[in-house]
Amino acid sequence: MKKEHLLFEIGCEDLPAWVGDHFINRFMPIFLDELRKNRLVSREIMFFFTPRRLILLGKDIPVCTVEEEKEVTGPKYDVAFDSSGVPTPAAYGFAKAQGVSVSALKIKQTNEKRFVYISKKIPSISSIKIFSCIIPSMLRRLDIPRGMRWNESGEIFYRPVRWIFAIFGNEKVPMEFGGVKSSQNTFGHRVLSPGRIRIYNWVDYFDKIEKAFVIPDEKIRYSFIIELIKKSLRENETFDSGIVENLSNLVEYPRVIRCKFPDLRYNLPEDILSVLVEKAKGIPIFCGKSIQKEFFVISDGNCSDTIGKNYENLLRTRILDAQFFYETDLSQSFYDFRNKLEKIVFHQRWGSLLDRVNRMKKISAIISDILGLGNDEKNILTRAAELSKYDMASEMVREFPDLQGIMGAIYAGVSGECQQVCKAISEHVRPRFSGDSLPESTFGVLLGIVDRIDYLCCFISAGVDVSGSEDPYGLRRVSVALFQLVYKSGYDFDYEDIIDKIFIVYQFSASELDATKNRIKNFLLQRFESYLETEGFPKGLRGSVLSVERLNFLRARNKLDAIRSFIRETADVDTILIPVTRVANILKQAKEKNIDIPDFKRELLKEDGEVELIMVADKYLGVLKDLLEKKNFSEFLRMLEDLKTPIDRFFDKILVMCPEENLRGNRLALLKMFNDVFLKFADFSYIKEEDIKNVEKN
């Protein structure tokens, strides 16, 4: 069948940088589901984003659906017809629902039961007709935070829609959304090429908009900016390329301008200057670890001196403000901020920021004991926790919230606190956003974990929920930061146990204690599974490990890494896992049949297969337990290859579910010895063939 490319573009007013990721994460699942429902498939789907347009390209989609015949099963025969063969109301109702007469009903036999059914022809439908209907419908189904209405249509979108371009092959896809009808026209860069552009096919589209100064691919824009900056760098100068990624989503045709710091007298620390430049949408320039008195800005198509001067004036204003607030803060003792924390509300139930730092200090002490930290290390962590939010009462952080942590470290250092405490205060707020750097010091990591645990416990216990795109308190972001910090820490501990032990800090009533603990644990488990999904672990792998580890985040991740590597590096891995899964499944069947499994008795062994398997158990099970104790998960999995043949032979030779109760119980007990060891690693019965294929493919 002939295939064509679908290309559509939604042109908008200035879109925020976060819209691209949000749109593709929400729209793509809906789009794929609609393709499946309408019996269509695309070889590849590509998405592009600029601050003025959202672009989707679906390659090689059939021009129409295939005509097919479908069976629709109705009620059982004895429900549809009485004993005399006369149709009942059920038969008439089914026929009416399917748009046929009762005489068109047919009868089929399924598992010794008879059902009535009809054969229904599903006609071929033009793909253009399908897209005309589903694309506007999908746009209306998007869950958009802070969406806008802009005309009498009442439609909600990220920003007002100004044009819609949509073609399939070389034909227009007619549709309407937000009072805007689709066409075969798009527009170039707003300043450099603002005119209307007629498009005839997908190749023509990309050729013409690039000539009209629009770079649709954000990855190419990012690389383009990096190259422009590198050409402008002087000897020994460096910059943080991570800043560029967000800025590349604010322009369609980037130009790089080198600007100068204002000629002012100020004594702001370099960490503050760096943040001020970033807040002004600039990119700081460094020589070694020292910030230079110049910075880059990214302009959209225009690189005139006026643009550069505007950014320089903006930075001038920010530096003047920061200098005033910095001097105001230094005019008082850092420790005086403690009293001000009592007047800053953290949460209606959980009190002020002073209450919060008191909780964090207690949690730090509990976690120090759990981790086995020495007294000196414990004192550093608890001191950092006590001082961690003092800067929230400072003028600098009130005016520039991104300086939280940085200002606390600076003021603590001026007040004579040790370097480790200062560094922990500075680092504990990271990561602040996706892609942000993690703390470098152990105390920074641990304090970050304490901070996130307290935040999550407070808001979840207060009944805050996360649903759809609604997450007003950032619980998703905070939980992801927690997982990343746990990975970084290297401490292999079960956070289920940690939550149990720190709950003494919150003084819940006896009636709400268990329910609140479970709500927090279930939230973390759900968020951890979602996070693992974003890291590319298939559902079966996630289920197999989380059924055992639950909230031991680091160990779960290490086990999943080991399983993924094992699958990729091992030929016929499914044949190795099948015997392990058979052991788990037969024990599950025994449990479903309420068969009690007694203690294993060697004297009941009769068959060669049983004797061989107990010899394998004697040889391997102790070794496997030792490997788990040492957390050598890769070697544990490799040893499963040695168990494949004897377990297969056992099932081939031995009837486990035999009539003799004592033999059946003993054989199940023998298999349970193996399964108990397997379950200390994972429940392999969760892993399906499609999970293995997904790992191999990716």
Automatic annotation (TrEMBL):
It is found in: Cytoplasm. SUPFAM superfamilies: Anticodon-binding domain of a subclass of class I aminoacyl-tRNA synthetases, HD-domain/PDEase-like. GO terms for cellular component: cytosol. The keyword Iron does not apply. It comes from the Bacteria. One of its GO terms (biological process) is arginyl-tRNA aminoacylation. Keywords: Aminoacyl-tRNA synthetase, ATP-binding, Cytoplasm, Ligase, Nucleotide-binding, Protein biosynthesis. Residues 581-687 form the DALR anticodon binding domain. GO terms for molecular function: arginine-tRNA ligase activity; ATP binding; glycine-tRNA ligase activity. Pfam families: DALR_1, tRNA_synt_2f. It catalyses: tRNA(Gly) + glycine + ATP = glycyl-tRNA(Gly) + AMP + diphosphate. Its EC number is 6.1.1.14. It is an enzyme of class 6 (ligase). Tetramer of two alpha and two beta subunits. PANTHER family: GLYCINE--TRNA LIGASE, CHLOROPLASTIC_MITOCHONDRIAL 2 (PTHR30075:SF2), GLYCYL-TRNA SYNTHETASE (PTHR30075). Belongs to the class-II aminoacyl-tRNA synthetase family. This is Glycine--tRNA ligase beta subunit. The gene is glyS.
